[in-house]
Amino acid sequence: MELSWTSLLPSILAILFAIITRKVLLALIGGIILANVLLFWPRSADIGEGVFLSSWSTLVDSSNMLVWFFTLGIGALFGVLEKGGTFKQFVLKLEQKQWVESKRRARLMTWILGVIVFIESNVTIMISGTTSRPIYDRLGISREKLAYIVDSTCAAICILIPLNAWGAFNLTLISNQGVEQPLLVFIQSIAFNFYAIFAVLLALFVAWFDWNIGPMKAFENNAKPNRVTQHTWADGPDESVSFGKGTAVVLSSLISLVVMVPVMLLITGDGVLVEGDGTLSVFVAIYIALGIAMLGTLFTGSAGLPKVIQSALKGAWNILPLAVILWLSITLGGLTRDLGTGEFLAAALDGSVSLWMLLPLIFVLSAITGFSIGSSWGTFAIMLPLAIPIAMTLGLPAAPFIAAAISGGIFGDHASPISDTTIIASMASGTEHIDHVRTQLPYALLAGVGATIAYAITGAMM
């Protein structure tokens, strides 16, 4: 279809409706319907068929099936760890040892977890958020602050330390554009990935100094220690079970989760990490960790087999709404690509743009695309094939252009209320999704403005 500004409407509708009503599911459904109206108008029968087929094809797509199952697997894993009792023992162990006895230490612990678990963004969020949440509640730190810190370190770290599926995906896109020595150029681009760098450093600054701006101030003021009941659990841990054994189960399952992803990337990539199957690797790693958690919980005596199975099923059930949101989000993202949203935005770059403005414009355009479709990977796929040829045509180094496209995608994804990582950060931290979006946005905008200025300076020096 002919490119038009109307291709932006489904994403704009979904974003505005989600922010105003806080009904993310309804917002995504509305965006999907509007996208099909734009594609098939005025054929009403085709519109209805398009809504069904676009949703169904996304649901049954083989690669997406792995996403649904590893999303449910994450829920089952943390259901076993939390409801089975070992996770409670692990948190109480931290409290008993007084390792995290101040708000600053709690925030820094979350930041460090986000940095060292660089294998997969959603795994990073779940580990950091679920581990930190009970400690934040006890110390009187808002869950919105937790959601911000885990969200600001997940995708940013995954792209800054790209020994994972993120690196493999982007390296493939770069190679397909005919770049000489694509791995070297990709590594060089990391130094220019200004938004990711600024987001991680800003999160560290906030964790250390407890800097609150915008709506975050109100949530932090309301999260007082005297409003949190200390050392209480709904069903209480089994005090007869060794804290050491419970901690060992949690650490073993989480460590296996981190270790098995690169191992599976090597296996599926025939010994080449960056050629591995990222989705399959994460899927296998999660279910190995789930098996360790279930067997470990049985071994410690924290719970019997019926309770372990019940905990796994309940954990999967609790995260099912997230899987539905992911399904609808991916469907909407595919439809926006069919409408040519990215290509329309890219048309804003024409030959009349000054050289020093190219990098900031690519960054901003990529950010708008990421914000609109709620997917950093989808943005990379749209923007890298546009940014790299510009650099090659002008005889300029490709690394800064690659970084601007990737960095903008991360910024847009970080700020978007329909992004899967933003949604998962809300779920893992136990906060209202729109509250997380509102409190995180000022920090994301601050890092985004800094990145825009940095790209303008870099462009002027080329």
UniProtKB/TrEMBL annotation:
Protein name stated in the entry: Transporter (NhaC family)
Originating organism: Idiomarina aquatica
Topology in membrane: Multi-pass membrane protein
Keywords, comma-separated and alphabetical: Cell membrane, Membrane, Transmembrane, Transmembrane helix
GO annotation, cellular component aspect: plasma membrane
Subcellular location as annotated: Cell membrane
InterPro entries membership: Na/H_Antiport_NhaC-like_C
The Na+/H+ antiporter NhaC-like C-terminal domain, residue ranges: 185-459
Transmembrane segments: 12-41, 62-81, 108-125, 186-209, 248-268, 280-305, 317-335, 355-374, 386-411, 441-461
Pfam families linked: Na_H_antiporter
